Every structure is written in C-alpha cells, then in structure tokens.
Amino acid sequence: MAAVWWIWRARIALCLNSESIPLCSLKLRIMDYTLLIENCHSNHHDTPSAKLVKWNALEGTGMILNVDGSSIDNPGISGFRGLIRNADGAWVHGFFGNLGVTKILHTKLMTIYKGLLLAWELNIKDLWCYSDSEMAIKLTTEPVDE
C-alpha cells in the first residue's frame, strides 16, 4: 500500500509539475511509510517501567554535584546545567552554558567536566556527582580498556 501511494505521488509530481523524485528518495519514503503503517496497526507497545527516584545525599558530609546536559538532536545544539548542593540538600552554586553543536555523550561528559571545574574553583574536595547518563558516569569512574 505504501509503495502504491508513493509511486502514485511521484507520477503526479512528474505529470503535473515536471518534478522528478529520485529513485533512492522514493525508496526511503516507501520504507518510512511502511514502517509508520506497521507501527500504527501494531498492538505491541513498549511502555517504559516507572522508576522512583529522589535526591539522596548518601548521609555524607560532602557536596553533591547534580548535572544535566541536553541536545536537540544527536549531534545537535547542546547545552548544560548543573548545581552543587551541600549534604543537607541546600543550594551552594549553579552553572549553565552552551556547547554549540555536538553529540549527546560529549555534552554529558562536558557537563560533568564543567561541574568539576567549578567545584575545584570553590575548593570543594569531597564531592559526589549525580547524572542521568549512566555511560558518562561509567566513563569517568571506571577504567577504560584500550
């Protein structure tokens, strides 16, 4: 059905507007439309399981660095933000910025880096880092195989 639809549209575009749609573009449109139709009629929907989270100071006396980097696309326009809290959860210092166009993992790692720089400037030595990126935390805390 998707193939018939896009071939018909390509023919109309050619006949009425003298507009030729490249074969590779037509093929991609057919594949995308087919996938869309299949997903619309599928009874199987993956619903993510809820995970209850809360801020936790780990009953420590140190500071907590909460970071979050985001990207509109991957790669895309990226930004970062974060804050440092004391062990009671009170705000100590915050930061934010723009990284330009970059990939999301790079954004997450740069956000941690910027937070660590701020902590160093504030002479904070006892610090825990919280991030929503498990990969970024692993890359900064675990050995990397070469």
Structural description of this entry:
The chain is of the alpha+beta class and 146 residues long. The protein has two domains: 2-40, no CATH class; 63-141, Nucleotidyltransferase, domain 5. It is 41% helix and 25% strand. The protein has four helices and four strands, in the order ααβββαβα. The chain has helices at residues 2-17, 23-40, 104-121, 134-141, and strands spanning 63-71, 76-85, 91-102, 127-131. It has a four-stranded mixed beta sheet, with helices on one face. β2 and β3 (91-102) form a beta hairpin. α1 (2-17) packs across α2 (23-40) and α3 packs across α4. The N and C termini lie far apart (49 Å). This is RNase H type-1 domain-containing protein. It comes from Trifolium subterraneum (Subterranean clover).
Beta fraction of the residues?
A: 15-25%
Principal-axis shape equals elongated
Q: Low-confidence stretches at least 5 residues in length (pLDDT < 50)? A: none
Q: How many individual β-strands?
A: 4
Main pleated-sheet profile: 4 strands, mixed
For this structure, the CATH topology of the largest domain is Nucleotidyltransferase, domain 5
Helicity level, as a percent range?
Answer: 40-55%
Largest sheet: spatial strand order: 3-2-1-4
Q: How does the helix and strand content classify structurally?
A: alpha+beta
Count of helical regions:
4
Determine the CATH superfamily of the largest domain.
Ribonuclease H-like superfamily/Ribonuclease H
CATH class type of the largest domain = Alpha Beta
Number of domains: 2
Distance, first to last CA: 49 Å
Order of helices and strands: HHEEEHEH
What's the average pLDDT? 83
Radius of gyration computed on alpha carbons: 24 Å
CATH architecture of the largest domain: 2-Layer Sandwich
